[in-house]
Amino acid sequence: MSVEVVLGELVKRSMGELERAVLATLDGVVIAASNPSDIDDIVAALGAAVVAGVGEAFRQYFSTGVRDVIVELEDGRIVMLRELKNSVVCLVSKSKPNLGLIYYLLDKYTQRIEDSVKGTTTQP
Prior knowledge:
The chain has 124 residues and is of the alpha+beta class. The chain is 44% helix and 27% strand.
């Protein structure tokens, strides 16, 4: 299954809580998006930069990396970022989302996303 299909399914299963999902390289280049648009390049670049900056700071001062970074926007939307082995998943929510559902879906789909990038498939 393609990574675009997996990201689209993740957004669909969020029952309206997620607006989009973007997968980016660690240096901020879009690999795939749930519903491609012009904003994906910005989400990918900012997401990768935030994960890299926060991750490096915690590695230097606490000797451990960061799994997830959550950014709350002024309008109540959440951008949830998760660093994978060679990429970053960027989820953009609606305003005031159900974070429990988003975490659940991200945990459920992380392996499927990684497998899709490698070209293999795993069922959730």
